[in-house]
Write a structure and sequence with these properties.
Length: 105
């Protein structure tokens, strides 16, 4: 079987791509958001620490903003983490980093 190479991706910094994709999908309301967040949560332990730190910081800020918007009843206007199903997907990412924090001495 022929080995696939992704030479076109070599020009991109994977750190930048993961952060940019997370920022792009945050607040969107599509199945793609849920799929991306699911994959991000699954890959969390393999992502470099410095990349995880940026994504975690960004998502914690979005959780804060989302909580605030929901408490003000802004559900019909805009929610920083998207609809409930989108937020649930981002919660899976949050659970992944909390699990790692518990496992790391």
């Amino acid at each position: 079987m022929k080995k696939r190479t992704n030479k076109h991706l070599n020009a991109f910094d994977p750190h930048m791509l993961l952060i940019a994709a997370t920022r792009y999908f945050t607040g969107r309301r599509t199945i793609s958001t849920c799929a991306f967040a699911r994959e991000l949560a699954a890959a969390w332990p393999t992502i470099p620490e410095h990349t995880r730190a940026v994504i975690q910081r960004d998502l914690e800020e979005e959780f804060r903003r989302d909580d605030e918007a929901r408490s003000k009843g802004q559900r019909q206007i805009y929610l920083p983490l998207g609809h409930d199903c989108d937020r649930e997907s981002w919660e899976k990412v949050r659970e992944a980093w909390k699990k790692m924090e518990k496992e790391t001495p």
